[in-house]
Structure formats: C-alpha cells, structure tokens
Amino acid sequence: MGLPRFTCPKGGDGESSPHLYVANCGPAVGLPYETIASVFGTYGEVKGVCATDESGTRVIVSYHDKNSAQAAMKALNRRPCSSLGGRLLHIQYSVQSLGKVNNTDAVPVSTSASDLDIPGLYLMHDFVTAQEEQELLAAVDDRPWQHLAKRRVQHYGYEFRYDIRNVNTKHYLGELPSFVSPILERIRSFQTLDHAADISLDQLTVNEYPPGVGLSPHIDTHSAFEGSIFSLSLAGPCIMEFRKYATAVWQEKTTSSSDVGEQTSEKNSSFIRKAIYLPPRSMLLLSGEARYVWHHYIPHHKVDKVNDSLIRRGSRRVSFTLRKVRKGPCQCEFPQYCDSQR
Ligand SMILES: O=C(O)CCC(=O)C(=O)O
Questions:
Q1: Rounded distance, CA 19 to CA 64, Å?
Q2: Residue 171, phi then psi, degrees to nearest 5
Q3: Residue 257 — pLDDT band, cuts 50, 70, 90?
Q4: Cα–Cα distance between 276 and 123 in angstroms, integer?
Q5: Which among 47, 282, 304, 337 is least surrounded, fewest beta carbons within 10 Å?
Q6: SS3 (DSSP) at 313
Q7: What is the DSSP string of 111-173?
Q8: What is the dihedral of CA 210, 216, 221, 226, to 10 degrees?
Q9: Do 173 and 155 contact (CB within 8 A), yes or no?
Q10: Is 103 part of a structural domain of the chain?
C-alpha cells in the first residue's frame, strides 16, 4: 500500500481541512520529515508527514483536526520560518483524493528481490567486503570523471552515449580495468546465477550520484546490451523502483541530452510499481523480464522510507554497472519492448 493521496483544491487557499500541502519543504531542501513534524507539532498533534511526489520538496502535513491546520497555516504560510532555517513555506489546504492512482505516490520498499516477484531480478547482499569497497572507490576516484548535468560517470570497455542510449561499438576503449577483475571473477563463480558462467562482460559504467540525485526511468536499450546487467552499489544506499507499463511500445529518444531521459512513450500509461532497497556493497542482477520489460528508476530522494525507517542516502552513492555489448540484433521474447524487433 502506498501513502495516502492528496490534492489541492484549484484556485489558491481552498476550504480548510486537517491536511496541509506544504511546498518548498522536504528532505531535498534539507528538512527531514522529523523536523517538519516537530515544527508543525507546535500548532497541534501531527498525524503524519508524507511526500506528495518524488521531488523531496513538497509534503503533506496531516493533523487530527482542522483548527491545528488553521493555526499552522496562519503562523507559517509565506513567512520566513526561523525553526526551518528561515525558509519561506507555501501552504495550501489539501483534501484526501479518492481518484486514480497517481504515478508519483510512494510504493512500499522491499529489502529482498524475492518479495518483488519480478522474474529475473536478484539482489545479493555483501557482494564485496568493506575493504574491497574502499579499494574500488579509491580506484575510480583516481581516474577522470565525466560530468553530466547532475552526476559524474566513467565508462570502460565502450563508451555509453546518452543521446542515443546506445554504445558506439566501433569505439573500443580497451579491456575492463584490473580493479574490476575480482568482481568479474565473483560473478562468474556465483553458482546461483543462471548462465553467470557464460557471461563475458565488457562494458562498465561507473555512476556517482550526489545525495538527492536519482536516475530517470529507463530500460537499457535491448540492441545495445545482451542479457544480464549487474549493478554494484557502493558508498551509499538508494531505492530502485521497477515499473511495468500496461502498454509499452519502444520509441527512440528524439531529444538530445547528456543524460538518460525518461522514455516518454510510456509516460502517460498506467503501470505496476515495485521498489527495492539497495544497500552499499550489494549486487543487483537484472536478467530476463526484469532486464527487458521493467523500467528501472532511482527516485530523486535524499531520504528513503524503507519499512518504518527513514534512511538517509549518505554523501554519495557510486554504482558499477557491468554489461555485455551486443554485436547483433536482439531476439528477446519481448518484442513490444525491443528496439531490434520494432
Ligand atoms: O546506479 C545504478 O545502480 C543503475 C545505473 C543504470 O541503470 C544505468 O547506468 O543505466
């Protein structure tokens, strides 16, 4: 079950209600939910604080009664709030919505892949030791980063081109660096992974996400990479959401950008959502349906809600994504999601 959904009556202040829609407020602007609850708690008993969407900058504060909400509105709306670092909040009354599920609601977050029931999705905790993690981070920090709009990347083997969401197979960058050899070896020897022994991964993308930065929903281009995709999380945690769209038609990205853009063809259709918590040092494997059909997405949060805990993302998250560059067309069993079989 997701968080309750709220809407703001159109045209400004609206009728009073126990729920306040508070903009310019949330983890992404440095205000943890606990702090918000404590400040609004000055005006009455707060029932809960929840995100309105994935931005981390808008929350709903719910009281048990309208009077408390009115008192908070009067004291805090459009006035610099000293207990929130002088921040100017924009508050409206909000009503609980009974309408269609909004795509931006939060989803419950699982800590194990088997709970998600997505064929081909696996998560292995403690895939590397703490010392190996430090060595891997030191190795990439010693090498040049490429700056994208919101995060830094490094590419090995082949460069990934974000404008066409594909690799330039003619531009070989050389063998994967020796610092990933132990990981490759472990992937090969991992008994429980289907076909792992056959995989000769030859492309590595290292992503470094500052806190609050995520990744747009996407399926890795079928024609770019073969079968399984491995992603090792280091330094900080995040949640990853998976989306399966009711109607999915592959559509080439037409705009040019330096980053992975949302695959807009599916943007307005309904979809199933599931989410998993990726702790540092865990390895995620996307294979089969998980790789070819489900979009994966990292919400732009500084704090993630996992069960009943709020988990801060930390100073950065670094991921190592290992893939095998495809040399011929994709012949997967999911043609409606496949750019090779359009
Ligand atoms: O950071 C991750 O774990 C995922 C990275 C990813 O999906 C990508 O680089 O396409």
A1: 9
A2: -105, 85
A3: very low
A4: 9
A5: 47
A6: coil
A7: SSHHHHT-TTEEEETT-S-HHHHHHHHHHHHTSPPEE-SS-EEEEESEEEETTTTEEEEEEE-
A8: 50
A9: yes
A10: no
Q: CB of 319 closer than 6 A to ligand 1?
A: yes
Percentage helix, strand, coil for the chain under 3-state DSSP, each rounded to 5: 20, 35, 45
**Of 96, 122, 139, at which residue does a domain stop?**
96
Nearest to 257 by CA among 152, 341, 136, 162: 162
CA–CA gap between residue 133 and residue 281 (Å, rounded): 7
- Model pLDDT, residue 234: 98
**pLDDT tens digits for 258-304?**
354 444 444 445 789 999 999 999 999 999 999 999 999 999 988 99
In a domain, 71, yes or no: yes
In which residue are the tokens 């708690």 written?
41
Give the atom of ligand 1 at the shortest distance from the alpha carbon of 207. 1
Whether 1 maps to a domain, the answer reads no
Domain end: 53, 68, 96, which one?
96
Residue 104 inside a domain? The answer is no
Mean pLDDT across 251-262:
41
State the pairing for strand pair 295-298/146-147. Answer: unpaired
Nearest C-alpha neighbor of 124 from the set 208, 231, 229? 231
Q: Assign 284 to helix, strand or coil.
A: strand
Q: Which of 162, 286, 321 has the most ligand 1 atoms within 8 A of CB, as the residue to mutate?
A: 321
Residues 149 and 251 in one domain: yes
Distance 189 CA to ligand 1 centre (A): 23
**For 165-169, 218-222, 291-295, 323-327, which range has the lowest pLDDT when averaged over its residues?**
165-169
Q: Which atom of ligand 1 is nearest to the CA of 319?
A: 1
Q: Is the dihedral of CA 125, 126, 132, 138 positive or negative?
A: positive
For ligand 1, whether the C-beta of 207 sits within 6 Å is yes
Hey, whose CA ends up nearest to atom 10 of ligand 1? 220
DSSP 53-102: STTSSEEEEEESSHHHHHHHHHHHTTSEEGGGTTEE-EEEEEEE--SSPP
